[in-house]
């Protein structure tokens, strides 16, 4: 089903489309009663920084329209250094971080977030990175389902902007 989709590095020409999708996700989280992403994060500056640092990726459909966004970071995530719990990998193990996965709500595609996460796993292996760390709000049922489906392990809690987030890790084979 996803053979016509591609995941590619974001460029500044995509900024307004990315921001449009993130605003949809912010609104969706609010309608679900969540406080996640209701504090001015993410924002357009975050997108700009993601793109400038090479973190931003867009998912394009067969018409080359942006249908999702994700940040894939191969740097240390400072908030992950102070986990209340324990990561699966040792502190020296290189890892990738996933942030800001958002799927367009205009024509949502069932399973797209899962497919994107699987593609990210391939990108990581190509870079010889075999650990992926990610977090989400305790009430983000959609992401929690994706993590469960893809065999991510709950490792504890990390804190962003004063709020606790559930932290997960997956060791890639």
Q: How many β-strands, per DSSP?
A: 8
Order of helices and strands: EHHEEEEHEHEE
Please state roughly what percent of the residues sit in beta strands, choosing from under 5%, 5-15%, 15-25%, 25-35%, 35-45% or over 45%.
25-35%
Cα-to-Cα separation, first versus last residue = 24 Å
* Mean pLDDT reading: 96
Let me know the largest β-sheet: 8 strands, mixed
**Secondary-structure-derived class:** alpha+beta
Number of helices: 4
| CATH class type | Alpha Beta
Q: What general form does the structure show? A: globular
Low-confidence segments, given as residue ranges, are: none
- Superfamily at the CATH H level? Gcn5-related N-acetyltransferase (GNAT)
Q: What is the radius of gyration?
A: 15 Å
CATH topology: Aminopeptidase
CATH architecture: 3-Layer(aba) Sandwich
| Oligomeric grouping of the chains | single chain
The helical percent reads 25-40%
Strand order of the largest sheet: 1-2-3-5-6-8-7-4
Number of domains: 1
Please tell me about this protein's structure:
With 173 residues, this protein is of the alpha+beta class. It has a single domain (6-171), classed as Gcn5-related N-acetyltransferase (GNAT) (Aminopeptidase), CATH 3.40.630. Helix content is 29%, strand content 29%. It contains four helices and eight strands. The model has no long low-confidence stretch (mean pLDDT 96).
Furnish the topology, listing elements before pairings:
Elements: E1 6-9, H1 15-31, H2 44-52, E2 56-60, E3 66-73, E4 84-85, E5 96-103, H3 112-126, E6 131-136, H4 141-149, E7 153-160, E8 163-171
Parallel strand pairs: 5-6
Antiparallel strand pairs: 1-2, 2-3, 3-5, 4-7, 6-8, 7-8
């Amino acid at each position: 089903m996803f053979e016509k989709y591609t995941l590619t590095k974001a460029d500044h020409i995509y900024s307004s489309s990315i921001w449009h999708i993130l605003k949809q996700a912010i609104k969706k989280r609010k309608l679900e009663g969540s406080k996640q992403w209701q504090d001015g994060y993410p924002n357009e500056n975050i997108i700009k920084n993601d793109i400038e640092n090479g973190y931003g990726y867009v998912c394009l459909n067969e018409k080359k329209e942006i249908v999702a966004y994700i940040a894939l970071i191969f740097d240390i995530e400072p908030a992950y250094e102070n986990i209340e719990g324990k990561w699966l990998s040792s502190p020296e193990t290189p890892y990738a971080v996933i942030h800001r996965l958002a799927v367009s709500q205009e024509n949502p595609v069932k399973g797209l977030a899962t497919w994107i996460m699987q593609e990210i796993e391939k990108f990581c292996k190509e870079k010889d990175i075999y650990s992926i760390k990610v977090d989400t709000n305790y009430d983000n049922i959609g992401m929690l389902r994706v993590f469960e489906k893809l065999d991510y392990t709950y490792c504890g809690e990390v804190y962003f902007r004063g709020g606790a987030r559930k932290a997960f890790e997956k060791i890639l084979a």
